[in-house]
Amino acid sequence: MGRRHRDALFPPAERQRLTAYVDIDPDHVAESFDDEPALNDAEILITSWGCPVLDEGVLARAPALKAIVHAAGSVKRHVTQACWDRGIVVSSAAAANAVPVAEYTVAAILFANKRVLEIGGLYRDHRDVSDWSRRFPGFGNYRRTVGVVGASLIGRKVLELLRPYDLDLLLADPHVDAAEAAALGARHVGLGELVAGSDVVSLHAPALPETHHLLDARRLASMRDGATLINTARGSLVDTAALTAEAATGRIHAVIDVTEPEVLPATSPLYSLPNVLLTPHIAGSLGGELRRITGSAIDEVERYCAQRPFAHAVHQAALATSA
User: Fold this and answer.
1) pLDDT tens, 109-147?
2) Spatial distance between the Cα atoms of 258 and 32, rounded to a whole number of angstroms
3) Which residue is catalytic, options 187, 213, 224, 281?
4) Which position among 234, 253, 303, 312 bears the catalytic label?
5) Which of 22, 40, 243, 253 could form an S-S bond across to 228 if both were Cys, CB 3.0 to 4.6 Å?
């Protein structure tokens, strides 16, 4: 992993905790596998953001490697077919990382339906009393419809966190049936019905060829007047040009944490449109939230050393439909 990620995820106390389970140099971090002598004896790799690709060449220099514990979300960028062919077991802290993303999403949903950001801006600018119910008829969260696109770890966590509220929940996911959706507290519908029928559309699908620009100009145009689009998943799920054009009309709102490209040009109208909240990919684990990921990873190392199965094992077959 990158050294800065090691320092953030594994401060000295956590590195010391690892020494209770494994033979490790708690101060060593490998940012590259080139000329890395520790590979020869390593049975477990603890990886995170910035991990180089574990291809056949790297694995040839790691004959003892049996397990990869990823202290982050997706393993797609570094775990290759060669790892699966070797029979290496893989764990990920994706479930731990899903928690702050889901929390960000739920906060965005509740604020969006209450028109908090819009009203707050108007109050700041005009500094007077107004009849907000008249200006925003029907605003609030009671019996509003929230559509979740993708029953991913994060999508499921969002549905779980939304259960206490008086909301009508929809779920669109081709890999989930009506019974499973109902068990998650939602009604299973097609994507078109969800987009057209929701007050908030929240994206939690993986970046796959079939999900590229899932929300294109046609689908964005089908959203209800005043509806809000939330994207905390992948920037490629939304056609940026189409979203910019639709949002510029003022007809819909958007809360966007991930974009395509990752950082929009400084001239993008999305930075300044009053109906758009643009954040710089902060929904995932940051600051103190990283401790949840660290704990998950160290717990998995402990399980492996006790010859127990991973609690958060990654299975190759599931990667085709996951982030």
Assistant:
1) 999 999 999 999 999 999 998 999 999 998 999 999 999
2) 27
3) 281
4) 234
5) 253
